[in-house]
């Protein structure tokens, strides 16, 4: 009697990728990721995106130079799959906190064909590692709908930050 062999479902292959810290030479990659992130979040006006690219490039360059912006990219064979940055954001003084800066995770982006493979997770892990090494007590961010699962998986929790909209912006989330 012929026995039917059960076909095993093929597990999708995780591409090998390495996450490295960026340098100023990588600025065009960071600008691309920033623009692509906003486009995915609903910003569609090319002129606005072009303008935002220039402003972000200037903003990021000066902060990278002063050591207030760090970035990481995930690469596979020289191809960039995704990345993200930590900005040391100025904050108001409060009791028990000597530093008036806090690390803030921003510009998280994974190229569409590389999503769901752990690329963003790899970047988040590097960012957390950097914060621990530099003795920061927390890492903050504003999560897009797509990003929420990634952050929850890495122990991020919702906070009590609030806002009152004065004017609705198209890309607001
Ligand atoms: C959000 C984003 C960066 C996630 O990148 P990613 O590399 O796909 O994320 P990861 O592969 O590390 O996913 C981690 C977890 O998120 C969830 N997840 C990621 N992609 C998912 C998908 N397509 N469907 C469902 N869940 C998904 C899973 O829970 C996954 O955990 P698992 O590995 O245990 O399954 C990416 O979707 C993106 O660039 N989106 C557009 C821009 C954006 O929203 N950026 C975030 C701004 S805060």
Explain this structure.
The chain is α+β, with helices and mostly antiparallel strands and 173 residues long. It has one domain (18-153): 3-Layer(aba) Sandwich (Aminopeptidase). The chain contains four helices and five strands; from the N terminus they run βααβββαβα. It has helices at residues 27-40, 46-66, 119-133, 148-153; strands at residues 18-21, 69-76, 79-90, 101-110, 140-141. The protein has a five-stranded mixed sheet with strand order 1-2-3-4-5, with helices on both faces. The model has no long low-confidence stretch (mean pLDDT 92). Coenzyme A (COA) binds next to α1, β4, α3 and α4.
Helix content: 25-40%
In sequence order, what are the helices and strands, one letter per element?
Answer: EHHEEEHEH
Quaternary structure annotation: single chain
Radius of gyration, rounded? 19 Å
Q: CATH first level: which class?
A: Alpha Beta
Q: What does the average pLDDT come to? A: 92
How many strand segments? Answer: 5
Assess the beta-strand content as a share of residues: 15-25%
CATH topology: Aminopeptidase
State the end-to-end CA separation.
Answer: 61 Å
Low-confidence stretches: none
The main sheet orders its strands as 1-2-3-4-5
The tally of domains stands at: 1
CATH superfamily: Gcn5-related N-acetyltransferase (GNAT)
- Alpha-beta content class: alpha+beta
Number of continuous helical runs: 4
Shape, per Cα inertia axes? globular
């Amino acid at each position: 009697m012929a026995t039917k062999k059960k076909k095993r479902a093929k597990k999708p292959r995780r591409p090998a990728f390495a996450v490295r810290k960026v340098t100023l030479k990588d600025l065009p990659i960071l600008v691309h990721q920033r623009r692509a992130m906003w486009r995915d979040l609903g910003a569609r006006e090319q002129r606005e995106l072009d303008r935002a690219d220039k402003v972000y490039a200037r903003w990021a360059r000066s902060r990278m130079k002063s050591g207030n912006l760090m970035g990481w990219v995930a690469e596979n064979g020289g191809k960039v799959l995704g990345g993200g940055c930590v900005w040391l954001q100025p904050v108001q003084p409060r009791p028990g906190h000597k530093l008036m800066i806090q690390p803030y995770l921003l510009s998280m982006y994974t190229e569409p064909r590389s999503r769901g493979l752990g690329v963003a997770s790899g970047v988040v892990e590097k960012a957390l590692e950097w914060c621990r090494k530099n003795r920061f007590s927390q890492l903050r961010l504003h999560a897009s709908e797509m990003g929420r699962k990634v952050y929850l998986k890495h122990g991020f929790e919702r906070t009590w930050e609030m806002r009152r909209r004065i004017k609705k912006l198209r890309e607001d989330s």
